[in-house]
Amino acid sequence: MIPDSLDSSLTIDDLPALTLSESDRWRLSHVERLLKLILRIGAGMDYDETAVTVAAYLHDWGGYPRFQQPGVEHALRSMQVAESMVLPRMDLPQEMVPVILEAIAYHDYRDQRPVASIEALLLREADFLDFLGIIGLVREYGRGPADLLSAYERVLARRGLIQGRFTLPAAREMASIRLQRLEQCLEWLREESFDFV
After folding, report:
1. Which CA distances in Å does 135 have to 81, 110, 130, 154, 182?
2. Taking the CA atoms of the chain, what radius of gyration do you get in angstroms?
3. Do residues 107 and 127 make contact, with C-beta atoms less than 8 angstroms apart?
4. What pTM was computed for the model?
5. pLDDT per residue over 136-186, tens digit each?
């Protein structure tokens, strides 16, 4: 958990353990996948690795039980938590803070606003990728409830909102592969479930 003392400082090395203590292994593994995706889709690009790493760890904190607020969208709440509780305790260059906050605030696939920084674009498109392919399918079915058809419909809805939004060439290429894999799995699912009967 985040130390209560405002005097206690935090470093980037503290973020994995803090993320795990505030959530669970499932959410931490999401961040770990995002960081690997960012390295791939950002290869050869000039971006602030520290800023995007901090943003990746903090981007979903507003959806964690301790920080959730009814009626406040998780990306906005994550930005608020980062801005008020975490970033002030980190020794970061002042110009990095707005970049981190933008990346957190704009990461959600439902957010259609354009981003200003490459760090925000990398986090957003990596997050999109993590909702596609086999991992996206497993994530959706893992959320429950144990209703094949409902989860299938959520997978289709999310795919529809994400698939045309990639702008980075490497992300587009990865998305194409993941979409093909997802379609094959959905076809097998329809076949083996007898169309969800």
Report:
1. 27, 19, 6, 14, 9
2. 18
3. yes
4. 0.94
5. 999 998 887 788 899 999 999 999 999 999 999 999 999 999 999 999 999
Place of tokens 């990865």: 174
Residue 145 near residue 163, CB atoms below 8 Å? no
Q: Per-domain residue ranges for the chain?
A: 1-120, 131-197
Summarised one tens digit per residue, pLDDT across range 89-134 is 999 999 999 999 999 999 999 999 999 999 999 999 999 999 999 9
3-state SS of the chain is CCCCCCCCCECHHHHHHHHHHHCCHHHHHHHHHHHHHHHHHCCCCCCCHHHHHHHHHHCCHHHCCCCCCCCCCHHHHHHHHHHHHHHHHECCCCCHHHHHHHHHHCCCCCCCCCCCCHHHHHHHHHHHHCCCHHHHHHHHHHHCCCCHHHHHHHHHHHHHHHCCCCCCHHHHHHHHHHHHHHHHHHHHHHHHCCCCC
Q: Quick one: which of 113, 112, 197 has its CA closest to 152? A: 197
Q: For residues 105 and 50, give the distance between their C-alpha atoms in angstroms, rounded to a whole number.
A: 17
Closest alpha carbon to 127 in 83, 85, 161, 77: 161
Peptide linkage before 3 cis (omega within 30 of 0): no
Q: Which of 139, 125, 134, 127 is nearest to 173 (CA)?
A: 125
* Terminal-residue alpha carbon distance, the chain: 45
